[in-house]
From TrEMBL:
Family: Belongs to the methylmalonyl-CoA epimerase family.
Protein's UniProt name: Methylmalonyl-CoA epimerase
Keyword Metal-binding among UniProt keywords: yes
VOC domain span: 4-137
Superkingdom to which the source organism belongs: Bacteria
A family per Pfam: Glyoxalase_4
A single MF term (Gene Ontology): methylmalonyl-CoA epimerase activity
Listed EC numbers: 5.1.99.1
Matches recorded under InterPro entries: Glyas_Bleomycin-R_OHBP_Dase, MeMalonyl-CoA_epimerase, MMCE/EMCE_epimerase, VOC_core
Length: 142
């Protein structure tokens, strides 16, 4: 069901500073910057590699305000890994299959993610403390 690690989401206080750190330390490049109001984040995707069905990335996340998932996470735990996101070919069918195993779904239906993706989250309490995201990439131009 899982095609690859699509991205690792990292919570930070200052997006621009963290982008500069990742670029100078690891030689990675920002390929997308977006504000996703629905998710309450200002974010950047930094490209790492290409894999089956899409690329893999580092996703840097700064909250748009304190009362958001990433804002609450920063207040409670400070900066660090916020979630792991796996690439799947079809989020809707993956949600159905995973929901059927008893894992709580935060999103019953896919939402909009970075770079035209469809995303959905699984509850960390049912995944061993790991907030887990499923990502379906848009079809590649042929
Ligand atoms: N990883 C692991 N555990 C987490 C967590 C995370 N990122 N965020 C919260 N938790 C834990 C908390 O530590 C807390 O555990 P305890 O009860 O043992 O203290 C519990 O989950 C509840 O946490 P909370 O602070 O009360 O937060 P909420 O229940 O309001 O929200 C969650 C938690 C996961 C449902 C919410 O963060 C959510 O809906 N996340 C999905 C959306 C999201 O994260 N969007 C931003 C990223 C967007 C993107 O990737 O594009
Ligand atoms: Co993400």
């Amino acid at each position: 069901m899982l095609l690859r690690i699509d991205h690792v989401g990292i919570a930070c206080e200052n997006l621009e500073e963290k982008i500069a750190f990742y670029e100078s330390t690891f030689g990675v490049t920002v390929v997308s910057r977006e504000v996703n109001e629905e998710q309450g984040v200002k974010e950047a995707m930094l490209h790492v590699a290409d894999g089956e069905g899409g690329g893999s990335y580092i996703q840097l996340l700064e909250p748009v305000h304190a009362d958001t998932p990433v804002g609450k996470f920063l207040a409670k735990r400070g900066e660090g890994v916020h979630h792991v996101a796996y690439g799947v070919s079809d989020v809707t069918s993956a949600l159905e299959a995973i929901g059927g195993t008893g894992v709580r779904l935060i999103d019953l239906h896919p939402r909009h993610g970075a770079m035209g993706t469809s995303i959905a989250f699984l509850h960390p309490k049912d995944v061993g403390g790991v907030l887990t995201e499923l990502v379906e990439s848009p079809p590649r131009p042929s």
